[in-house]
């Protein structure tokens, strides 16, 4: 089979993604396949949470990133809080969150987040953020303060943080790890070959280093990372990312289909089938991940509440240092 090259012009310039993956699966032609169609979110719980977030002047990545699972997750009372505003200092080719010059950080935001966690009755809270590269520590203190307030207002609630790379500032990472989140997530997003177009302001090696250091700083914290497929990576490149993550002792991996949020973003090279996602799950489990969430609609925080049980076990059985 001849390898395909996908060349397209976008707002980011002319992009060449090659080679397109081979084997079974659907190239992007016409409408989305049926396994990627979801109902518009509308339930009493969804409306209740939307009102709660508006009232607290908070943002969620569910809304800002156009997550396809927003109806399912909000319908069962779970959401991912987006810290530090809704404007990112980076311009990743896949992300819907707006890029620009963000406003000042809000020192009261961590308390309001914790109040929302309490109001929602959450047993597991997920916190992420935009990139704040203009901040000396990338806003690491906001994560730490948010964890502090959740512990104070909602005792027993586990916390997962999905953090940026802090530009390799390991003191900033230590600030987050000192707050002892149960799960530390940092997404790889794609394979190394595609970083220049997908994550132009990030570095694959730096992300791997962050995950390695996080585990070393607190071995009882579960580490987690995820990638999107459908951007032009090969099957072998996906497996190599899995191997790299395991080499850095990452415990949990998520794999989902990239969906182009607008015509100005990177194109979808192909759709992976549910069977292929099942095969990727098997590959991950074979490599020793404690949990692999793999499916067309999987996103970073999908079924995160289930993964929290692993975190509690990790903390419970972690040997006490001599």
Automatic annotation (TrEMBL):
Residues where [4Fe-4S] cluster 1 binds: 62, 67, 73, 301
Pathway stated in the Swiss-Prot or TrEMBL entry: Protein modification; protein lipoylation via endogenous pathway; protein N(6)-(lipoyl)lysine from octanoyl-[acyl-carrier-protein]: step 2/2
Catalytic function, reaction form: [[Fe-S] cluster scaffold protein carrying a second [4Fe-4S](2+) cluster] + N(6)-octanoyl-L-lysyl-[protein] + 2 oxidized [2Fe-2S]-[ferredoxin] + 2 S-adenosyl-L-methionine + 4 H(+) = [[Fe-S] cluster scaffold protein] + N(6)-[(R)-dihydrolipoyl]-L-lysyl-[protein] + 4 Fe(3+) + 2 hydrogen sulfide + 2 5'-deoxyadenosine + 2 L-methionine + 2 reduced [2Fe-2S]-[ferredoxin]
SUPFAM superfamilies assigned to the protein according to its UniProt record, in alphabetical order: Radical SAM enzymes
Source species: Litorilinea aerophila
Name of the protein in its database record: Lipoyl synthase
Protein keywords: 4Fe-4S, Cytoplasm, Iron, Iron-sulfur, Metal-binding, S-adenosyl-L-methionine, Transferase
Biased composition (Polar residues): 1-13
InterPro entries (alphabetical): Aldolase_TIM (IPR013785), Elp3/MiaA/NifB-like_rSAM (IPR006638), Lipoyl_synth (IPR003698), rSAM (IPR007197), rSAM_sf (IPR058240)
